[in-house]
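Long-time lurker. I teach an intro course on protein structure, and each term I like to show students one example going from raw sequence to a predicted 3D structure in token notation. This year I'd like something fresh instead of my usual example. Would anyone be willing to generate the tokens for the chain below so I can use it in lecture? Attribution to the forum is fine with me.
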Amino acid sequence: MIGGSMTYFLYHTVPLFVKVVISERAANEEMERCWLHCRETERCWRTSPSK
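-- Reply from a regular --
Happy to contribute to a lecture. Here you go:
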């Protein structure tokens, strides 16, 4: 059961972790743009999909 849970955990977290690391720079730039946009208008909060 422990092995199955660990496999399930790694199966769902490792790809996400790798994706985050690979796209970290692009994501940070996108977040900065979103924050700058949110300062001017709060529409970003309503239109951006929550993940």
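Some talking points for your students: The chain has one domain: 2-47. The radius of gyration is 16 Å.
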